[in-house]
Specification:
2 copies of one chain form a homodimer. Chain A is of the alpha+beta class. The first copy, chain A, has 2 domains: about 110 residues, Immunoglobulins (Immunoglobulin-like), CATH 2.60.40; about 270 residues, Alpha/Beta hydrolase fold, catalytic domain (Rossmann fold). The first copy, chain A, contains 10 helices and 19 strands. In chain A, the strands form 3 sheets. The first copy, chain A, has an 8-stranded mixed sheet with strand order 12-13-15-14-16-17-18-19, with helices on both faces. In chain A, strands 4, 5, 8, 9, 10 and 11 form a 6-stranded antiparallel sheet that branches. Chain A has a 5-stranded antiparallel sheet with strand order 1-2-3-7-6, with no helix packed on it. In chain A, a hairpin with a 6-residue loop joins strand 12 and strand 13. The longest helix of chain A has 29 residues. Chain A is globular and about 70 Å long. At the A-B interface, helix 1, strand 8, strand 9, strand 12 and helix 4 of A face helix 1, strand 8, strand 9, strand 12 and strand 13 of B.
Chain lengths: ~400, ~400
Amino acid sequence: MKAIGFVMLLAASFCFAQEPSDFQPATSNVLDSQYPKVDGNSRVQIRFRAPDATRVKLNFWSGPKVDMEKAADGYWTFTTPPMAPGLHYYTIIVDGAEVSDPASTAYFGGSKWASAVEVPEAGANYYLPQEVPHGQVSEIWYHSSVTGTWRHAFVYLPPDYDAQTKARYPVLYLQHGGGEDASGWIRQGKANFILDNLIASGSTKPMIIVMANGYASRAGYIVPDLTGKPFGSPEFMKVMQERMGAFEDDMTQVLIPFIDKTFRTIPNRDHRAMAGLSMGGMQTFQVTFNHLDLFSYVGGFSGAANVFAMGNNKLDTKTAFNGSMADPAAFAKRVHLLWIGVGTNEPERMKTGLENLNASLGEGKIQHVFYESPGTDHEWQTWRRDLKDFAPRLFQASAQPATSAR
Amino acid sequence: MKAIGFVMLLAASFCFAQEPSDFQPATSNVLDSQYPKVDGNSRVQIRFRAPDATRVKLNFWSGPKVDMEKAADGYWTFTTPPMAPGLHYYTIIVDGAEVSDPASTAYFGGSKWASAVEVPEAGANYYLPQEVPHGQVSEIWYHSSVTGTWRHAFVYLPPDYDAQTKARYPVLYLQHGGGEDASGWIRQGKANFILDNLIASGSTKPMIIVMANGYASRAGYIVPDLTGKPFGSPEFMKVMQERMGAFEDDMTQVLIPFIDKTFRTIPNRDHRAMAGLSMGGMQTFQVTFNHLDLFSYVGGFSGAANVFAMGNNKLDTKTAFNGSMADPAAFAKRVHLLWIGVGTNEPERMKTGLENLNASLGEGKIQHVFYESPGTDHEWQTWRRDLKDFAPRLFQASAQPATSAR
């Protein structure tokens, strides 16, 4: 920065005349950065400056690491084969250092501020801002008696929230994945634009969406050093259960009451839903099935009831979830929507887990929805599509006499 | 990511038992990352993994680049001398590649997602979340007829905004610096916590704060390639004036009407203020003095009327700003507050510019406030202090008969 910092920076956002090429700067770039670029065949060009490096690798998390090629000007480049549509996380490995690309917007994923490139989906504009009324996304802070800390969440308010000062709204609690944070569903997922568009078309009821921080530790809890304690080890699982429990308590004992006090909600189970992706899907199943007095709509996006541990196991619907599914007819009345989804290109373990859960629910005659996102991986395009299918199904049953009692 | 991505990530946020040292993880770290660390003497420890790199430099933007030392485990480390309090931007240069530190929260600065470390200021809690009512920060989107694009802004709503559904509020338009974006005043500046605390103590009137994107280009405008056209060259200045003008038009013709339509504002000049830091200060002086029918409170934080070009020049208050200062008494009635500030450790050019502006205003008998932040540089601690001094002075004169007419 120094003396001319503030001046240099004015110059930094200039956009230059387009090159004669099908490749265009990605919408996920910072300011007017020319790279990454995407062409009409969904190929991606990455360019990274590292004049003195001996080896630079490009690491798209959905694919293999590849070596970038060094040019005379100190830039390293790589052009990918055609990629699936959606937002693809990546990092760059410079002589062994895994870093983000300064040319990309930074998105919080993988427990760090990573890079990502947006590959457009032909004909899909449901997650893009359009000429429709836009809701607001509010950032809120609340002090948690469970964690003993200030916690932070994002709240989507539907377009008419400020104008309809007497109206009250149902609430969807929507959780990010592991290594992401409360900003994920807005910055990566575009949940606000998805809802704006669904509400404008009349296919979805106006609702409030609360996006909380999925990580919590009880006040005073010190996590033991897990070095050498792999996933699945008793020590690891104990810590994971502890943290899942802290999140469950914070959400049900602190966050939900805070939201119902702060916003014009309809504070009952018929008007409260929860969904989440990956780790957030696991949290959703734990929280909702332990608190069916609070929730009546449940969604697992590429993550659900202990999917990570299921492997090829099946779920026994007679005993699972405290027996809440033992009577399928009663369950169908009590839980208005049980929704699970997975991308067809997700890792085998994940796909198998969701498919087995779907099969188990079918064999148990448990009313549910199983959605498969064609050609997408364990990535945000799958979860954008999930939300687009899930949201219109919410709060439709709320008027049923059988379920309107709290 | 792949199969176990969502599992790995659960483990990623574990906090380990503290080492027996005065060094503590910085509050600006991601999740529970142990580095950067800060000790009681405001020394900062940075650690960065680059096992195969031959040279790694630490680049604090407020200081010189320094070589980091490589340890056997592939980590490079550096401990700084005591640093000034506040949030210090930095990057790391790995074999010539300037990148951010994955252990740090990413803040948008220098036209990229940079790293920064928060060095606490002893006894200063005015910018920290406290047990007081908290306002909300709303993210809004509006389509601009000036730029032809969707634009994005942050809006701070005071704590009682939702409860007092009949109340209307004055508005402060608060701009970020060059190379930053609309998120800067919240994520780096903590403007929401500063206002929460000032409002709770009764020293500041509840107000709405609008933080817009300071970069704009008119629809269809293609910025010429400025390669080889240094700052100050006619080509550069022409482009800069063009962009400043586009921002001015977007703010006065699109954003202000949108805000007054969307929120419960008091839509007149007596209840509208503008301030900004660095480039945002220059924009503030241009916008407010070209539109004194819209604004009556003006703040320049480390940036003001063409300060960047002043060098040792003086400002002729008889002719400057369309002659609006020619009559000091009339000016004092019309502009309720003219406020400029600078940090005592800022670069000489910046300090000289503000000091000369202060001197010129004094010689011209122009009523104004000049504030110097002791020991701080062209960095966020200066601007946090500026806001703390500036905000309580706002909207106090609004009741004066002499100025209450629009």
